[in-house]
Amino acid sequence: MIKLSEIPTTPPPHIDEEKIKDETKRLVDRLGKLQQVMYAERKHSALIILQGMDGSGKDGAAKQVFEQCHHYGVQVYSFKKPSEEEFAHDFLWRVHKQAPQKGMIQLFNRSHYEDILIQWVHGWIDDQRAEQRMKAINAFEELLTFDNNTLVFKFYLHISYEQQAKELQERIDEPDKHWKHNPGDWKEREHWADYMRCYEYAFNHSSIPWTIVPVDKRWYRDYIIAKTLVERLEKLQMEYPPLPVE
Fold this sequence. Notes:
The protein is of the alpha/beta class.
């Protein structure tokens, strides 16, 4: 049973930051090589979900962890407010179109879980609809897994309430971050407790488990994500395809 208040948002005490950074560099390089083999072999794909409160570093994680991956094999999609056409369909309609084909890594910067989280927090769906959507999400992710050899990675970027305030304030104070500032982020912060409750529901009712990533220190965030990905992809024992027989 996941309880976010019981999970630290910081690295373990006495951990060696420089050693972790060196290991992260190795893991990021290895991930780049694994991505190339996946693209060439075209037997598997990976869906990587990055969820977290505003300021938790989803963009930074996507940039840092995948910097050695080739652009032709990695795609990033960020789910915004649904369009009128998307609202006219079931909530997973727009999501399924972004699922990765074999050989590809697809990153979701926010994801289909928004249709439980923000809508439930604000009362746009009730408890029964949230439960039904959770069941649909589980079925969707399981479909990708068994029908398309898609590995589904789900990372919750676990930021503290105090650190989030610092991150949001930087968007006001630092000119190169002004473009990130959204007054609505401060408004959503008022619903922190409700978001934690809804996140915990999603974690504890998911068929495919989540990785809770402490992100108050960004270098530790990158390490945990890269390590999780590399360890799982290594188990596939992927190989470059041989020359075709003439």
